[in-house]
Amino acid sequence: MTYGDAMNARVRSEERRAEIVRAALEVIAERGYRGASLAAVAERVGLTQQGLLHYFPTKEALLVAVLKERDQWDAVPDSRWRVDLLVSLVEYNAMRPGIIQTFSALLGESVTEGHPARDYFAERYRRVRESMAGVLRAEYGEVLPNGLTPERTAPLLVAVMDGLQYQWLLDPESVDMPGAFRDFLRLLGEDVP
């Protein structure tokens, strides 16, 4: 096999893995993690279950790939986040209900003991709280106008963002997710349009 052939095979393999991850996202959004099967994902991409296992040896490995892919879509270096940019993130999320539904379903399932995504979400939330505390500190210093520290406010900020997603998913006609998030930022003392 030539170097060019090897590179082409690697690119095809990476493309196939990406296709499988997208299919897994769809299946999980429709059925939840526990209801999603490797066979259903394999069928979506025209593989046998054994063929899918060549790319992802376990359902848990596929789940981790799905979660990492989802995080890549939202990846912004911590140094670039600002409180006003969080509104843009909420607006962006309002344009992709399928991804938000998948994330929310996995998050809800992961609170059970032994769920394969539990450690992932626990670590993710630790990082997100730390990042949000940094965003708040950069904006307000050591104490926000409400008298709380960035570390005390960060979990509230994250809870509002995620809680609004759940409410919006359940009743998108009644819940203006970006508008409600702007209202929350006003409670922090932020001047948002």
Number of strands: 0
User: What shape does the CA trace take?
Assistant: elongated
Q: What percentage of the residues does DSSP assign to strands (E)?
A: under 5%
Task: Count up the helices.
Answer: 9
What composes the largest sheet? none
Helix content, binned percent = over 70%
What's the short version?
With 193 residues, the protein is an all-alpha fold. 75% of the residues lie in helices and 0% in strands.
Descriptors:
193 residues, mainly alpha, 9 helices, elongated
Description:
The protein is elongated, with a radius of gyration of 20 Å. The longest helix is centred in the N-terminal third of the chain and has 33 residues, at 3-35. Helices cover 75% and strands 0% of the residues. The chain is mainly α. The protein contains nine helices and no strands. The termini are far apart. α6 (97-110) packs across α8 (150-170) and α8 (150-170) packs antiparallel against α9. The mean pLDDT is 86.
Per-chain topology:
Blueprint: H1 3-35, H2 38-44, H3 49-55, H4 59-74, H5 83-94, H6 97-110, H7 118-140, H8 150-170, H9 177-188
